[in-house]
Amino acid sequence: MTGGTRQLVEAFCEGARGQEGIELDVRRADQADAAAVLAADVMLFATPENLASMAGMMKDFFDRTYYGVLGRIDGRPYATLVCAGSDGEGAARQIARIATGWRLNAVAEPLIVITHAQTPEAILAPKTIAAADLARARELGATLAAGVSLGIW
Fold first, then answer.
1. Which of 33, 71, 137, 140 qualifies as a cystine partner to 8, CB 3.0-4.6 A?
2. Per-residue exposure over 40-68, b if at least 16 CB sit within 10 Å of its own CB, e if not
3. Is the pLDDT of residue 110 over 90?
């Protein structure tokens, strides 16, 4: 809603597109379905952290897709990206628990970007993600894409 997560996903995609043979299917959580999960070779779960939790839209995505892909995506690689005001660990932990149930393979530590937004005005304001954090997201994208290109995962 404030653009921070979107900026990080865009940077991730820039890094991933630098690898040969990579095709990206980027969807908002409300546009993703079980068929998209089944078609993915690797997944990035990106969410803002709201009240120490993943965004409601991301929770809805997992609720809608969980049983439809359970037992059908075991071992697939994934990474997590969280844009948070102060912590990010709660959202990252929730995604990790779901990914464990799906038996996914975490190929990187969660990338958590802290915006330090602590007042209602700062929390609701459009975000500008720092260049260093965007570089970290690009690197994560390049890393995941290289793993796919090289057949590592």
1. 137
2. bebbbbbbbbbeeebbebbbebbeebeee
3. yes
pTM for this model (two decimals): 0.95
HEC profile for the chain? CCCHHHHHHHHHHHHHHCCCCCCCCCCCHHHCCHHHHHHCCCEEEEEEEECCEECHHHHHHHHHHHHHHCCCCCCCEEEEEEEECCCCHHHHHHHHHHHHHCCCEECCCCEEEECCCCCHHHHHCCCCCCHHHHHHHHHHHHHHHHHHHCCCC
Instruction: Tell me the pLDDT tens digit for each residue of 42-57.
Output: 999 999 999 999 999 9
Tell me the residue range of the domain where 110 lies: 4-149
CATH number of the domain that residue 38 is part of: 3.40.50.360
- How many independent structural domains does the chain possess? 1
